[in-house]
Amino acid sequence: MREKLRWALVVVVSMALGATVVVGIDSLRTDASGPAAVIESVSSPSESNVAQKIPEDVADLYDKVRPSVVKITTGNEGSFGGGVGSGVVIDKEGRILTNYHVVQGAGSIDVIFADGTSVEAKVLGTDPGNDLAVLDVDVAADKLTPATLGDSAAVRVGEFVIAVGNPFDIDGTLTTGVVSGVGRTLGGSGRPLRQLIQSDAAINPGNSGGGLFNRRGELIGITTAIENPSGDRVFVGVGYAVPVGTAKRFLPQMISGQAVEHPRLGIRMENVTPTLAESRGIDAAKGVVIVQVESGSAAARAGLRGGRTSGDIIVAIDGVEIAGYDDLGNYIDSRDVGDKVKVTVIRDGGKTTVEVTLEAWRSSAT
């Protein structure tokens, strides 16, 4: 009888501003004989979007994408424990996209293809801030079926999607659903995951890093987390995927082994509310109030001010209106470390503009 899986919560790297708690969908096995732990992995294939026949049914769609999805197993040095997740082949050179937390700290990594072929893998590069990693395997090109990368920016609520991965170490499992939301942000104590795709296609431990595909069989997201307000470590209908557009942006850096850095201001903030605006005596229905400026941060060096009752209220950056902290975070994420941005704030009853040189997140968790 198989040993019962002992799940380990993986808190998804997230923003520190009033978001709900989300857990990564990973689990650990307790010994070599037990089922492998589930991890999240993603895939991202070649970018040829030549007119393709749309499968007539879900079975055809599964047959089309299944060869691109792999199982990832990891081992820990000096221990019998290990993990299992999913990944997606992205090119004929043997590169596989997955979640960072799937391979983080692994002593060994193996990739198992749909036909059962198993090979060792190495990490080419990682982007912890987006929970992404790229692996490399040395196999013949005919063993590799790259997924087609779709356009995650064009994803619409209500679209049909399928998720393919290895939940509970059950190979090549298909689940179906629809896109339930787009542009979601997951918060926590560290850097937020932004612009996520929400779907109700069931994902569980082992789906981590698996592919979220549209009805054309294009990869649109990397399954990475589940919403879990009750604290139970099971899927309750709300799952999230890192959009493939995010992966595309940072793939060149990860493949080359460069460190991927993400920009930040170094502040804690709250959305402006009518009550807050009235209490401050300001005419601003939108924006964010800076609650705290981190010591030594980019914001501190630029002279931005914090305080729930007296802090600067950010209303625009580089002339782009900021309605709330999602707008602010998304804009900052679109820039690079070292970029200079002009932050327009309401201060002492009037507007002023402060230039800030964006700094890098000091780690994926702070």
Tag the structure with descriptive keywords.
single chain, 366 residues, mainly beta, Thrombin, subunit H, Pdz3 Domain, 6 helices, 26 strands, elongated
Describe this structure in words.
The protein is mainly beta. It folds into two domains: 6-256, Thrombin, subunit H (Beta Barrel), CATH 2.40.10.120; 263-360, Roll (Pdz3 Domain). Helix content is 13%, strand content 37%. The chain is built from six helices and 26 strands. It has helices at 58-65, 100-103, 244-256, 274-280, 298-302, 325-333, and strands at residues 6-7, 10-11, 22-24, 27-28, 37-38, 69-75, 82-89, 95-98, 108-112, 118-127, 132-137, 148-149, 160-165, 173-186, 193-199, 211-214, 218-227, 239-243, 263-264, 267-271, 288-293, 313-317, 320-321, 340-347, 350-357, 359-360. The strands form five sheets. A six-stranded antiparallel barrel has the order 13-14-15-18-17-16. A six-stranded antiparallel beta barrel has the order 6-7-8-11-10-9. Strand 22 and strand 23 (320-321) form a beta hairpin. The radius of gyration is 21 Å and the shape is elongated. It starts with 5 loop residues before the first strand and ends in a 6-residue tail after the last strand.
Say what the CATH topology of the largest domain is: Thrombin, subunit H
CATH architectural type of the largest domain: Beta Barrel
Secondary structure class reads: mainly beta
Instruction: Please report the number of helical segments.
Output: 6
Shape field: elongated
Low-confidence stretches: 1-24, 26-52
Q: Kindly, what is the distance between the CA atoms of the first and last residues, rounded to a whole number of angstroms?
A: 42 Å
Order of neighbouring strands in the sheet with most strands? 13-14-15-18-17-16
**Can you count the beta strands?**
26
